[in-house]
């Protein structure tokens, strides 16, 4: 018993000593930092599953600004992480000195899980080469060509809501974007609106890190990629990985064998493949991340917009009036061109992404030692960097009364006054979201059909103030959002 007691004491002492040593990192760098907690660092509520990571980082952002610091060192668990808070420092990281911060933290091993060899995970020249290859697939012209596919999904969305007195909009919007991305990325008719057990829907949801174990594995792999690879840690379940990989193989084989073509994303990649610069595995990985990055984020944009419109009926009526006025000039038909004329609509969506950025933070990795401008501090190669988007977007210095939903913040006049990094829902710089146009288009098409045809109000099940889900890395609501639905005459 005494030996066991001594072993426990020794283990606790060793762990305590390790963390005390690790938590001196930023002090030695002489970078201002907040006091961490052993063993959770500066994000104890996230580590305990009590707080969304984006929200906890936003709290840290506010504390750092209150101290008057332009940046700070923080610890996520035992991992030293650099957090810039002054907008000029953020601009240096994402744009001006991008060559020092050109990589993201990886989320898996492409050798054992080829789906991980996608644009978000690739580094250095591999990332640059892939970004160059993919850029033509995301031009305004290519996005416009996918409009008809999105419009077909919108028709199903409107039909689904037509006879409902109330609707849970989180699941509704996810079903819509699953259908859109499944169709645009893979050429599939997923029928998520009709089929609750659609394989694409089931495997697609499982591909996201929604469990504690999956998030821990992702965090471990991001900070110890070599060890994670050595231990053969999987961050995607094998059956999920195989489903998407086999799906891409089948679609490519079918189209090449039968000469079928379609105005969608995978067809663009098949055309690139003909030149020999993409493999089938490359295409599978890019379509996989196209789905991951597109379905959840756009669904959240739609969800939070409907939530705020239900709470702000004057804004909802003004938006509906604009939709109807513009469509009257287009024979009542929603088209790519008609959507471009709905300027207040853009303001509404921008304000939603300010208050609820779908991705509440982004990360980078310092790829070579970086001396801070006008300071002696050096950020070492390999150091993690985090940009607290949610904190910036809810900063009263940039957005007075930040909890208020006010689309007027994004009038043309007000946008001209903004710092370029005060509003970054899609990131900023060379590694900003390549699919931004398509993400906005699918959300706008879906919302246009809903707001044009239905009036939404808060259901009694839905609180007036909604928090973010601690179990999500996105800005997902902590609970269901039920809205009452009334058909517009």
Automatic annotation (TrEMBL):
Predominant subcellular localization, coarse grouping: endoplasmic reticulum
Keywords: Endoplasmic reticulum, Heme, Iron, Membrane, Metal-binding, Microsome, Monooxygenase, Oxidoreductase
SUPFAM superfamilies hit by this protein: Cytochrome P450 (SSF48264)
Family: Belongs to the cytochrome P450 family.
Example of a GO MF term: iron ion binding
Protein name (Swiss-Prot/TrEMBL): Cytochrome P450
Coiled-coil ranges (or none): none
């Amino acid at each position: 018993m005494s030996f066991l007691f001594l072993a426990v004491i020794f283990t606790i002492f060793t762990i305590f000593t390790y963390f005390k040593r690790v938590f001196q990192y930023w002090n030695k760098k002489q970078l201002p930092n907040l006091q961490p907690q052993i063993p959770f660092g500066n994000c104890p509520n996230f580590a305990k599953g009590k707080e969304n990571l984006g929200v906890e980082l936003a709290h840290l952002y506010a504390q750092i600004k209150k101290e008057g610091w332009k940046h700070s060192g923080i610890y996520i668990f035992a991992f030293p992480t650099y957090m810039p808070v002054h907008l000029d420092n953020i601009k240096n990281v994402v744009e001006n000195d991008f060559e020092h911060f050109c990589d993201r933290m990886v989320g898996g091993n492409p050798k054992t899980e080829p789906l991980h060899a996608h644009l978000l995970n690739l580094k250095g020249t591999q990332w640059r080469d892939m970004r160059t290859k993919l850029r033509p697939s995301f031009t305004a012209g290519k996005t416009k060509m996918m409009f008809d596919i999105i419009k077909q999904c919108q028709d199903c969305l409107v039909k689904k809501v037509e006879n409902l007195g109330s609707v849970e909009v989180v699941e509704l919007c996810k079903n819509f974007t699953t259908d859109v991305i499944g169709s645009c990325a893979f050429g599939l008719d997923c029928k998520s609106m009709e089929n609750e057990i659609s394989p694409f829907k089931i495997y697609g949801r499982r591909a996201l890190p929604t469990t504690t174990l999956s998030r821990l594995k992702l965090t471990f792999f991001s900070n110890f990629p070599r060890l994670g690879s050595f231990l053969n840690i999987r961050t995607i379940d094998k059956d999920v990985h195989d489903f998407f990989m086999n799906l891409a193989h089948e679609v490519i084989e079918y189209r090449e064998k039968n000469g079928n073509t379609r105005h969608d994303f995978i067809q663009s990649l098949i055309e690139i493949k003909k030149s020999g610069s993409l493999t089938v595995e490359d295409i599978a990985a890019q379509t996989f991340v196209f789905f991951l990055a597109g379905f959840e984020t756009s669904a959240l944009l739609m969800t939070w917009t409907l939530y705020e419109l239900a709470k702000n009926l004057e804004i909802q009526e003004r938006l509906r009036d604009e939709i109807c006025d513009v469509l009257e000039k287009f024979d009542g038909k929603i088209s790519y061109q008609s959507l471009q004329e709905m300027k207040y609509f853009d303001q509404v969506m921008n304000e939603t992404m300010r208050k609820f950025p779908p991705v509440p933070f982004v990360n980078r990795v310092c790829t070579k030692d970086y001396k801070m401008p006008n300071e002696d501090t050096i950020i070492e190669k390999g150091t993690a960097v985090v940009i607290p988007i949610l904190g910036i977007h809810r900063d009263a210095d940039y957005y007075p009364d930040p909890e208020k939903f006010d689309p007027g913040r994004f009038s043309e006049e007000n946008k001209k006054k903004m710092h370029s990094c005060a509003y970054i829902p899609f990131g900023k710089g060379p590694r900003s979201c390549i699919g931004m146009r398509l993400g906005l288009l699918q959300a706008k098409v879906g919302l246009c059909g809903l707001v044009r045809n239905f009036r939404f109000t808060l259901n009694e099940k839905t609180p007036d103030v909604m928090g973010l889900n601690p179990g999500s890395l996105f800005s997902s609501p902590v609970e269901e959002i039920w809205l009452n639905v009334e058909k517009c005459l």
